[in-house]
């Protein structure tokens, strides 16, 4: 819950796409409900490694590192 409220994992800042401004004011009950829901979803198999050269990705139709491995 702390990560969702602060946008940080230990000293590392999460991606700015994480809507921390929305989550920081939710109740503990709401955050636990979101977390419980996320645990029921299946993981997505989508390789993205921005330290690699960008290549075309068939899954998202964008270019990013390891795009050719999807």
In short:
The protein has 70 residues and is an alpha+beta fold.
Total discrete domains: 1
Number of helices: 3
What's the count of strands?
4
Write down the secondary-structure element order. HEEHHEE
Percentage of residues in helical conformation: 25-40%
The Rg value, from CA coordinates, equals: 15 Å
Ends distance: 31 Å
Low-confidence stretches: none
β content, as a range? Answer: 5-15%
Give the strand order of the largest sheet, numbering strands 1, 2, ... along the chain: 1-2
Mean pLDDT: 88
Structural descriptors:
alpha+beta; 3 helices; 31% helix; 70 residues
How does this model look, in words?
- With 70 residues, the protein is α+β, with helices and mostly antiparallel strands.
- It is 31% helix and 14% strand.
- It is built from three helices and four strands.
- It has a two-stranded antiparallel ribbon.
- Strand 3 and strand 4 form a beta hairpin.
- It is elongated and about 40 Å long.
- It starts with a helix and ends in a 5-residue tail after the last strand.
Secondary structure elements and pairings:
Blueprint: H1 2-6, E1 8-9, E2 12-13, H2 20-23, H3 28-40, E3 54-56, E4 63-65
Antiparallel strand pairs: 1-2, 3-4
């Amino acid at each position: 819950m702390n990560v969702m409220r602060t946008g940080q994992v230990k000293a590392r800042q999460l991606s700015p796409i994480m809507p921390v401004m929305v989550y920081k004011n939710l109740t503990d009950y709401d955050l636990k409900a979101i977390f419980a829901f996320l645990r029921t979803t299946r993981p997505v198999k989508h390789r993205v490694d921005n330290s690699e050269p960008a290549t075309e990705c068939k899954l998202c139709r964008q270019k990013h590192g390891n795009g050719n491995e999807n």
